[in-house]
Amino acid sequence: MAGSIEEDLSPLIEHSHSSPDHQSHIVTHRTGTIWTAIAHIITGVMGAGVLSLGWSLAQLGWLFGTLAILVFALVTGVSTSILSDCYRSPDSELGPDRHTSFLQAVRFYLGERNQKICAVFFNESLFGNDIAYTIATATSIRAILKSNCYHEQGHDAACKYPDSIYMLLFGLVQIVMSQIPNFHNMAWLSVVAAMMSIAYSTVGLGLGLAKVIENGEIKGRIGGVPSASAAYKTWLVFQGLGDIAFAYPYSMILLEIQDTLQSPPSETVTMKKASKSAIIITTVFYLCCGGFGYAAFGNMTPGNLLTGFGFYEPYWLVDFANACVVLHLVGGYQIFSQPIFAFVERWFSERHPDSRFVNEFYTLNLPSLPAFQVNLFRLCFRSLYVVTTTAIAMLFPYFNQVLGVLGALSFWPLTIYFPVEMYFVQRNIAPWTRKWVALRSFSIACFLVSALAFIGSLEGLVSARFQ
């Protein structure tokens, strides 16, 4: 994989305005505004992770849970500010060179070796998101069936449905969808995903608020859910931090969003304003969603607000919200998998240019359908990828624990470390200066939090698997 990695990855946000030659930086037009940037950020940030925030608040308590969400918002704000400065070089606002993706910027500022290390975390994050989406989709499908069952047979009925069969069905759907050519070019997919995300998040918030009103009290404790031992409580607190870490960062797509913006004013100035506004909006939404969830159920707050069955009625609204989750994640799985598909397939094509298995396309004619191009390597690899994510999801079908592990693994390297290191180079900050010490301390502190969150989430994942 000695070639340029960023050339092998298709963008998470398709740039219809960008030249296909990524190195030329020739651009026909950029028409994005602060409003489109805010929309892109909220679309990229707000996903299934918002449904776990009530549970996270329950583990941390009203005081530290609220503080944790605010601190992660502040950290994300600092990180995105310094990363947006790295879009242009040598000057952050007027420099002639643009860096249109995260990996491209890492290679320019930190070299090819660091780019390869970053690519490992980058692809791990994409792969992990697909695992989480498989788990969440199966859980939501099961919740729809249980909701209808409870409505028909009563809330005490034994309505049990296995997760595994729905994960397999989701995997079969993804195998078919993964063979659709140019799937990542379908702009409507992001629009649908955004609409579904906003819909189910709003329903979750509304149901939590309605439950609080119905209860006539605000449940929950300052210190969170009590535990049998201090050690177990500590693990849960760390796991809650991991879930919050999963819900916030969008560093992987920030530079791609910035590359859509028109100028003047400078893309950097617009992006900083958009990031600040989007983080404030997201944080308010997170505090409301998580807060109302915890206030409604207290110590019994479910891991997933829409599938833990604190809400039984109106059953049709619960069904609608979970259906939105399913539609969002069916498309979201492909959004995260397409860059990995492009990376692996191009690498094999360059390494084996004479292989018919890798490079040959065959025309498949099906009744009542247009001719379809089939590549045997793509068919095998993409199917194997989906089978792998499905198998891991079936082996570890634990929503909160998986989110915690994924959030902890990707938060520090992608949101903190690489942006800080690139900023040092971009601004030519000398070691042991005041700014260098401040940012280095910031990075180390975030590393410690990520490490603790990873340990706690991993312990929870292992315990859930073998208990």
Q: How are the SSEs ordered, and which strands pair?
A:
Elements: H1 5-8, H2 34-45, H3 53-84, E1 88-89, E2 97-98, H4 102-110, H5 112-153, H6 164-177, H7 187-215, H8 230-247, H9 251-258, H10 267-297, H11 315-351, H12 356-359, E3 361-364, E4 372-375, H13 376-395, H14 399-426, H15 434-466
Antiparallel strand pairs: 1-2, 3-4
Helix pairs in contact: 2-9, 2-10, 3-8, 3-9, 3-10, 3-14, 4-5, 4-14, 5-6, 5-11, 5-13, 5-14, 6-13, 7-10, 7-11, 8-14, 8-15, 14-15
Give an overview in words.
This protein is mainly alpha-helical and 467 residues long. The protein is 69% helix and 3% strand. The protein has 15 helices and four strands. The protein has helices at residues 5-8, 34-45, 53-84, 102-110, 112-153, 164-177, 187-215, 230-247, 251-258, 267-297, 315-351, 356-359, 376-395, 399-426, 434-466; strands at 88-89, 97-98, 361-364, 372-375. The strands form two sheets. Strands 1-2 form a two-stranded antiparallel sheet. Strands 3-4 form a two-stranded antiparallel sheet. Strand 3 (361-364) and strand 4 form a beta hairpin. Helix 5 (112-153) crosses helix 13 (376-395) and helix 7 packs antiparallel against helix 11. The chain is globular, with a radius of gyration of 22 Å. 46% of the residues are buried. The model is unreliable at 15-28 (pLDDT under 50).
